[in-house]
Amino acid sequence: MHAQAIFELSQEVERLLQLALQNLNTLKTTSFTTQHNNNYFAQPSTGKVAASQFCPRSIQAQQALLQNELRKITQHEMVLAIVGTVKAGKSTTINAIIGTEVLPNRNRPMTALPTLIRHTPGQREPVLHFPYVQPIEKLMEILQTRLQQADSETLTKHLEIDKDMAGLLTRIAEGNSFAKHYLGAQPIFHCLKSLNDLVRLSKALDVPFPFKAYAAIEHVPVIEVEFVHLAGMDETHGQLTLLDTPGPNEAGQPHLQKMLQEQLAQASAVLAVLDYTQLKSVSDEDVRKAILGAGTSVPLYALVNKFDQKDRNSDDEEQIKALISGTLMKGAIDPSHVFPVSSMWGYLANRARHELTLHGKLPPPNEQRWVQDFADAALGRRWRNEDLADAGALRHAAELLWEDSMFEAPVKTVLHAAHANASMYALRSACQKLLNYTQRAEDYLNFRCHGLQIASEQLQQNIAALEDDMNLAASSQQTANTVARNNVKQAIDAMGDFIRRYELQIITHIEDYFRNGMVPEKLTRQALSFGTQRGRDFDARHATLSFDDEPSAQIALHRIRASCEVILTAAQEKMTEELTHLFSYLEVELADTLRNTLKPIECRVAQGLTQAGFRTNISLPVFHVGLLNFNANQAFNELIEEQDIPVARLRRPEGMRGTVARWLNSDDWGWEGYTVMQSRYVISLADVQRRLCQHVAEFLLQLNQNMAAQIEMSVTEGMTAFFDDFSQALDAIRLNLQQSLMARSQNEEAVMILRQQLQQCVRTTRYIHEDTRLLRDDIQTLFTVEQQ
């Protein structure tokens, strides 16, 4: 690595960060920012007050952000933030990335506080440092008093008292606080579990949890451990740290969304853990919004966990990459940065390989549950204890499981690259943060400088005109909502007609199949793309199929079901394609509606809107094949009927006549008829057809209802958010104009001094921006050379 070049680049970035911090300190002293930003014009409160980007609170937040970048530069630290929902398997994914278990897994939120996990070569046993424990100690003192007053019966109604919670209650009652250091996996698990249970307990007792005290990264708990995948690699000029972040609304704490956004903004890169089975869920959408909110300041990666649950009707690897990159993430993430994986398989394979390397065998499965999970995944569910005795076979099975987990790609692309280029990531992150700051600051300062050159009368006219625009925007919202409702109704009606048309088409194909005993020829040709060519399954002249034994009946029914699935799969693919186009068309229609409605207002305040950072965007639910899966298996349950039917048989009669007939061995004489009852296994083709058609009708009805509800909810929320953003953007412009008017009310000497201060800040900001832009190009060039 070019150590000297990195050292020189680091020095330059430090200089620019220090200069930006000084510039923010200067802004703090101006008459604009010394005013209180919340409604200090004594106007009636509307419930939503626009805060200036450079009010004292905002300046403090920007200083904290730049200070964090300065800390990472001086320590050559690359922070990879990991974000995901509770059920996405975030803890399992982190354990798989590290190569050993450092975070506990429970069926409830496990990240009350952000937690740093730092790669520390040689640290085989994890150690947790929690030096800033004072806010937690103070919280426990308050909870101790509150618990003495609380009714235990009332507490149990609002809180699940499990073994861990009971231990925490005892700990609080006895006054035992948290330690500042924990060595070993189990003590760390206990500490993190207790922290999360404290969140639950605080909520139940209505005691605020001190989240704000841990907003700065240097205050959060830190786990130091050697990452198995990085062990033995050449040491680099930098340090790699993972940041385990709270998920949106985790533990029922809505304000964690803001905390998550702040943590993501401080990271050098972001890795999202998405649930393959829940890509369209509300919780995963919250994660995507948080990631997109981080903007372009950090590189984005995504692990699509639980990909082992994919079936033949689900999206494959390339489809998932395209869906997330182009649709769900709106092009903000490169398809090559999306990795479908099985975190559980990756974790289990790592854990087994680690144990086999250290001890040459696995622990007893009855003592450590993960061994049972590993054996189920790697050896199959019919494994026996004696199968765990062959270390060589287990090592081979672990390697195959690791390969099946598909974790090798993200480990090499993300983890190894981040470790090898930690300093470069830190430099690139700092440059991007500086560019974002200077762009916003220059727009703001130019607006302020221009405001000081305009006469007070003109400013008053501008404010009045803007207030008229705000009133017009409010009335326009009703018009836009009416048009949007009409668009939605038309789309829902079109979707209903479309689904009914396809239902008739599917039913027709099913009727053709049962009329002829084989899949229609045109669908057979299409079915060839699935690798299946079907012949005649049964003689359609018979109303029932009858078999002597149940296995033969099951085979026949399976053959019928496979042919019906060809029909349904063909329809499924065509429906998916057309529904996707329908949703895209609706999204374009709504965007046009918003643009046309607000165009007159936007033209008048275009410059102000740009400076306020407003962007037109409305997001609709995205349709993909996972939503449309007929899954007709249950329609074929209990269709084989066992019947006892009379069967005519011949036998030799008893007595002399039968004896003589046997002596003569005659086929024509000496026999008598009789009847026996025999079991037959019967399939009614009419019942199969009726059941399948009923399943299709019910499925499509439910699909139509669900999609209609999704569209209406999404459009309503999207329109509301759109106009809220628009209103806040206008409100921010009005605030800027009002502050300019207040500044103009001072004497000319004060106005001149303020103008000179702002002009100097503008010059400094432009200087920082230009130097940072050139520095970013140098860093990117060196980064490209290092990766070759």
Automatic annotation (TrEMBL):
Residues 74-412 form the Dynamin-type G domain. InterPro entries: Dynamin_N, G_DYNAMIN_dom, P-loop_NTPase. Keywords: Coiled coil. It comes from the Bacteria. PROSITE patterns: G_DYNAMIN_2. One of its GO terms (molecular function) is GTP binding. Residues 449-476 form a coiled coil. The keyword Cell inner membrane does not apply. The keyword Ribonucleoprotein does not apply. SUPFAM superfamilies: P-loop containing nucleoside triphosphate hydrolases. This is Putative vimentin. It comes from Buttiauxella agrestis ATCC 33320. The lineage of its organism: Bacteria, Pseudomonadati, Pseudomonadota, Gammaproteobacteria, Enterobacterales.
